[in-house]
């Protein structure tokens, strides 16, 4: 649960915004205080705080959180090791998102943003009062250092900021980013979400007397400019973050009513059942439940019945996020290169039976890479979407034009048998045949066999029925669950046959699509192109999305790309819910109305124990 919150701040790709400038009252060099992609900004210059916060929320108390896995670094930059959850509390970005606007952000480290009409560059003016925890000012040199190092050491940022040629200091507090192409409206936005690191600290000497190395993992508490500091930790097990009394930005309008807990403690568990028992016992204060069966059956303990633990189902966080959760075959493996093989595997997944027996019908089957949003394709392509696809007609599957995508439907023995027969037929078209009880490639003699790599035993109950169905048609699929560190390392190096993947999409997809599906990221270790997609048509569609001149053109390109991704059967779509399920002990409180597009946890929550 807590991992979602930390990565929300750490992973730039989940916050892609589009910009509409709002001039400040005393405009200088066309600097603006914030940006929005839909109409004008809600908040005007001089606003006191976001509407969804309690500006009088008390400061104090302790928040005890849990997460699964372990950690071995506080360094958020290189794609190495396991970053400690909550590390985002220590760091800041140039801008901060507003959770009651769909796509809007306001200055945090930067007080102003400016860019020319052709969007060939973007300039950020840092706040004079912005300081690191050691009292030194945040400088343009820090911003330049952060961009250079993230692009150099982290594949996600290398793809995300591919079109940012360089950053230059253009004033005492100004830094300008130069782009290699004009008209990429998203670049100023995502630069605002760049995490800024202290150049002087990283170029200094560590507590061990040796020069620090930003390319390596480290358990030395990192210097940041954010509201919290790392106060104590036990390697791989616990971390305590403490609110800084000397935090420079505590009175900023974008921070009022937020960062309310004096201490935020994380405990890391190796087993999700043990983690849940810790919550039941009151050792953990907040939990976001992802297992529908547990939500339906296990939340009946005394603290629930007497009101000490509160349960809520809220749609807020999912209102502006499209989700693709899927089993993802690795196309770098020969057995998955034929799309008919990948389609056949989907016919072996009986979602209806799984949803009924394991999830109490709490889930819905995903049928789009932008599932749950207005960006999801449906029916047959029309209008501008059709024109875009026709321009790529020779590079996309013909069914894009003739057959709306739909997942196989089962739920009873007869429907499942029919689906498995269709799967056998697709395998036959791809050059396989049943020999005894094995599905064998007729040219190579190799049986269809693969391993499904999982990060947690709790996933096994959802995947095992799929494995059993595949065995009925001679496919040897095996489950392998490994610890968090091994899983992370294997995924980063694409050392797997198939994994359980989740991609989240904002309502303004852009540069991160290159990291998800672009050819350049297919063999770039550490990217999120888990499937290994390298498709010229998809590359062209990604460019259309990024450089779309208006929203209508962008949406048409997004839906066209969605169709092409689906028609190539790159993944076996799984399921998701439209609501977040949360439970928390009544020592915690939140505003009566949560932010429209977020649970706001823990940013705008507070402790009733605070003095």
From TrEMBL:
Ranges for domain Solute-binding protein family: 108-523
Main localization, broad class: periplasm
Keywords recorded for this protein, A-Z: Signal
UniProt keyword Transmembrane helix present: no
tRNA-binding in keyword set: no
One biological process term in Gene Ontology: peptide transport
CDD domains linked: MbnE-like (cd08497)
Molecular functions per Gene Ontology: peptide transmembrane transporter activity
Gene3D superfamilies named in the record: Dipeptide-binding Protein, Domain 3 (3.10.105.10), Periplasmic binding protein-like II (3.40.190.10)
Domain of life, source organism: Bacteria
One Pfam family from the record: SBP_bac_5
Subcellular location: Periplasm
Signal peptide: 1-26
GO cellular component, one term: ATP-binding cassette (ABC) transporter complex
Cited PANTHER family: ABC TRANSPORTER PERIPLASMIC BINDING PROTEIN, PERIPLASMIC BINDING COMPONENT OF ABC TRANSPORTER
Family in the record: Belongs to the bacterial solute-binding protein 5 family.
Protein name in UniProt: Peptide ABtransporter, substrate-binding protein
